[in-house]
Amino acid sequence: MAPPTQDNRQRIIAAAREAFMTEGYRSSIDHIAQIAGVAKQTVYNHFPTKEALFDEMTSDNMNLFLVSLSDSPDNPRQALLEFGRKYYEVVLTGQCVAWMRMIAAEAPRFPDMAARTYKLGPVAMLEQLTEYLSRAMASKKLRKDDPQLAAEILYGMLSGAERTRMLFGAEREPYDQEKRVTAIIDCFMRAYQP
Amino acid sequence: MAPPTQDNRQRIIAAAREAFMTEGYRSSIDHIAQIAGVAKQTVYNHFPTKEALFDEMTSDNMNLFLVSLSDSPDNPRQALLEFGRKYYEVVLTGQCVAWMRMIAAEAPRFPDMAARTYKLGPVAMLEQLTEYLSRAMASKKLRKDDPQLAAEILYGMLSGAERTRMLFGAEREPYDQEKRVTAIIDCFMRAYQP
DNA sequence: CACATATTGGACTGTACAGTCTAGTCCAAT
DNA sequence: ATTGGACTAGACTGTACAGTCCAATATGTG
User: Fold this and answer.
1) Per-residue pLDDT tens digits for A123-145
2) Cys-Cys link to B136, which of A7, B64, B102, B142 (CB 3.0-4.6 A)?
């Protein structure tokens, strides 16, 4: 009935994640404390303000939604396919979209937090892609072109319509995700064949 | 000092648009009334609740961000280029992104509104594109393929990375928008040449 | 003019919530 | 056994805001 500090801190952050993700910043401290199974004052023992808690939880969250990209430039199609599949599994997820929705909503109020998140999320992913495509282009596996633009285009194809749909909370008629990823990567490969 | 009803109604809606767009749903009725230059009670004379006002203003807003697509299937590249340019001018705009950010943020709370908006915005645009691509494919101007998927891919390429960036409120190093649109359409044309 | 209706400003109610405070409990180390 | 730090429960303060009420005023119509 008197667990150590660090434990409570983690519980509070986890509760904050859950609450903020589902209700946005309007979620109350009382509620978060309740989810964490902790007294309100304990929350304030660990974080001076609601804002600080919010900030901490987003920092904590960043690495949850990263997708790695194999660095074998020999078979771009295969590597990109894998990437696409993982991307769909990790990023185009209720969880991740809820998070993004919340970040976007609060971006005007917390520009620094939003900028940081943007950098550690989409930008990191784009840089990874750019790097990869650049190498693949250098070794003539892909058409020589602006690798950054190509990365952005691929990123757009993967996330674009689907993420928009999810942001609006719309349902989608059942469809074959694997087929979709394959079609997208094939499309990209057609456009960027050497 | 006592303008007729219809006039006030419009002023209130306009004020609501401005307020909701910049501050989200948390913007207060008092504030909206103040922007409209109208007494709070007047707002309630026209709209029973804040929710009703919000709903009305989104309905009113829908047709603000539509992009038309010429229906000459003879020269897809040209038609799509024009479409892309208009899209960038209209949709990838601070205004429109602020609006989308707000809709997304409130989607869990107002699912009907979000669904309606989604349908009249992105879906309408996608249907238009699908229709166009389908005809272009039929007349052999484009590679025969699933036109809906092609539309979603094109939509993604156009909006994807750029919209994500804007949603996060990030700045972009100066760049040539026209060049970007051209590159995107060219990429699409490469992938979908007959 | 008289009436109905819209508007105004401001007071008011009730609720939700951030953040503070207090009194007391539990635990570990000295 | 005492001290100190974290914790708890709950009361409390101050503020912001949705929505109501009211008394006074302007407007247009019959």
Assistant:
1) 999 999 999 999 999 999 999 99
2) B142
